[in-house]
Amino acid sequence: MSGPYGERALLTATMALGGFDLVPTAQRERLLRYLEAVVAVRRAPVHTAVAFNAVYFGYDLNGEGYGSSPLRPDDFPLVTFGECAPVLPVGAMVCVASGSDPLYAEIVYKEGAHPAVGAFGEVPAWVSGAPAGAEGPGQPGVESPPRRRELLVPDPHAFGPGLSLSPAQLHRLRTRRRWINEDGHVVVDVRYPAREAAARDDLAAYADYLLTTAREQLLSPFVPVSLIELVGSTDEDALRAGLLCLLDTVRRVLASSGLLRLWGQYALSRDSLATCWRDTGPLGGDDLRTLAAAVERAATPSRRRYQAAAATTVYTAVGPRLRAFPGAGELLRGLEYASAVCRANVTLADVIQRDSERGLFGNGTRVTLDDAFEGGGVWRSHHPGSEEAPADPLTPAGSGWRSTTTSATLPEPGPVDEPLADDAVLGPGELLRTDEREVVWQLPLRLAHLIDGSLPLRPYVAGELRRTYGRQPTVRLELTHPGGVLERNEALQDVAVSLDDGAGRFTGVVWPLDFFPGLVLRLHWPRGGRVIRVVTTRLDQSVQIGDRVIGHSFDPCVLTREDAPGSDRGGDTAVGLGPRELVMRTVRRCGLLTLDGHALLDRSHLPSAVYGRRPARSQATALERAVAELLAERLLEPDLGSRDAYGQPHFPARHAEPTIPLIAYRPVRTRVTSPWGAPGPEPHELRGPQFVPGHLRRLLPGCSPSENQRAAFREHCRRLGKADGWELPDGYTFVTQHTRGQ
């Protein structure tokens, strides 16, 4: 199997410019086979960033690792055990300060190492999900920039035998505990430039790292194929977008493998998991089953006669809990620690999916993942779990931290003109990137934004604008809407910014006519500037939901809630609606909302939800007739839920609870065909000429490049701006850019 320096480059321009969905099947398969081989030979679970390193920097599968790659260890940042360090994401190449013997390593795993986590995995509630720098329950901390203690697992063998320390040298370093701890790990206090940076996802953080700290190695002409060649530009925005596309492609290729399992961003082979589960020794199948049972029973109250048990919540960190098993110490050293933690989390996830109902076990305890980072993963056990609304048990909820800061309950469904709790909060959106150049975030357009001509700002951006320009500055909005038509006064707008309410928002925005509730907006603010770009993302193929044809990325939950009958930019009211529209509006506004935009309502609550009271007989009859018509036309669907002893409805129906009829709104997405009436081929099946950027290729033993190839590589270096890298490395040739058929 060819590697990154083979005849065909594993990373292509399509991956960098179009992303996973546009990559031809053959290219995906080549990349997948290589990444599966990388997972098989490496001793730790392979994070997406590490997988990207392997294919981009040229990881050799025959024992050399990165030994023959273009990486220059002297350029790696220095990490000192027990001291402060800059942000080091998984995938970073580092040099661990270790006296006379430098320890070069690739960071392959990291987790939070909060000192409040106990030796047996017990975690104070406020630690689970706490932001970087938090000092106590409800105390997010005041230190700026914030710090967080982290445990880094380095792979000291990633650069091959030539740059690896001997087993005796590593043992000496572990014994002295001055540069690495006794397990071969590095514990540091990491300084984050801002709280938003600490909350960013792994891949966005790694992209920032490569484009700043590791920029020289990223843009080296000696990599198999340079990022600059892949995106065809040296523009910073183009490089960042291309890098994020490549990282996402690697992630999705790993997820498509039938030989691998993923825990978050970490890939493990199914064979290694099966071997572990069959093992009867320490941290084998027996211990993992014991761990799962202990987490399930952690919050179960002891039996007390004549006394009702109080609600109990227990938080357990996987990493420290594994150390409590007899004989586990030696198996948690070095890279094995990362493997053990990921296997334990996969086991817990499998038990929850197999033996519980969305986290609720038969003993009445609800088990959910609460924090995916601290202590290798913090699992929350709560009894009685039936008191809590079901949610995805494997999505980190941060309930521990939130329970020490705020508490709230969802209101009962009221009349359809009353705002719902999940619709009333117009939040600042999701942060995508923050660096020294710009802040990028995204949020769905809400109905209130369209009606008021407004848009909320992120608190950090609002604060910076207030400090620089005062309380009521004017900024320029630049709208970009690919595939849509914008009037001149819509594309460029000078709008006011209201900063008096703390959060800040734009006012007086003129929204284009084809903007709708749920449309996802991406906002770019260059630091210190008075221009904010607002960009929409075009879908590969338009879809039709109801009467609306949608050609851009959207939030299905917002679309369901806020694009209901009676809601448009002219107002939001049920006045004047007929029975059919009232039923549809009520189900969409008051029903239980799922992540994909479905809404389900207890059918018996429909009349009171519509009118806020018991309706007259004629009104109730009209509603029932409307429900029957909508069900017959499949605009609504019947479903079944259940009701517990306290009158609380549940979906799906729970065992041993009486069933109740539900009305379900399930938005049907219909693909919109091309203007000629026939859908085109799937993006990944497109055939035709394929552009191949210039790249390095490893030669067979005894072969050498021609003078023309040497000259082509020197010209390639000039285009990349690399003035000191004129000659081809030994054993390689250069393949010039060209076009070939698929």
Describe the protein's architecture and organization.
This protein is an alpha+beta fold and 742 residues long. Among the domains are: 275-403, no CATH class; 421-542, DNA-binding pseudobarrel domain (At1g16640 B3 domain, Beta Barrel); 574-667; 692-741, no CATH class. Helix content is 29%, strand content 22%. The chain starts with 12 loop residues before the first helix and ends with a strand.
Question: What is this structure, in a nutshell?
Answer:
The protein is of the alpha+beta class and 742 residues long. Among the domains are: 275-403, no CATH class; 421-542, DNA-binding pseudobarrel domain (At1g16640 B3 domain); 574-667; 692-741, no CATH class.
Element layout with pairings:
Blueprint: H1 13-17, H2 25-41, E1 46-47, H3 48-57, E2 78-79, E3 84-85, E4 93-96, E5 103-112, E6 147-155, H4 167-176, E7 186-191, H5 195-198, H6 202-211, H7 215-218, H8 227-231, H9 236-255, E8 260-263, E9 266-269, H10 270-278, H11 285-297, E10 312-317, H12 318-323, H13 336-355, E11 366-371, E12 378-383, H14 399-403, H15 421-424, E13 430-434, E14 438-444, H16 447-452, E15 454-456, H17 459-469, E16 474-480, H18 488-491, E17 492-498, E18 505-507, E19 520-526, E20 531-535, E21 538-545, E22 548-552, H19 556-562, E23 567-568, E24 571-572, H20 579-590, E25 592-593, E26 599-602, H21 606-611, H22 617-632, E27 637-643, E28 649-650, E29 659-665, E30 669-671, E31 689-692, E32 695-698, H23 707-720, E33 732-735, E34 738-741
Parallel strand pairs: 2-4, 3-7, 16-20
Antiparallel strand pairs: 1-9, 4-5, 5-6, 6-7, 8-9, 10-12, 11-12, 13-14, 14-19, 15-18, 16-17, 17-18, 19-20, 21-22, 21-30, 23-24, 25-26, 26-29, 27-28, 27-29, 31-34, 32-33
Helix pairs in contact: 3-9, 6-9, 11-13, 20-22
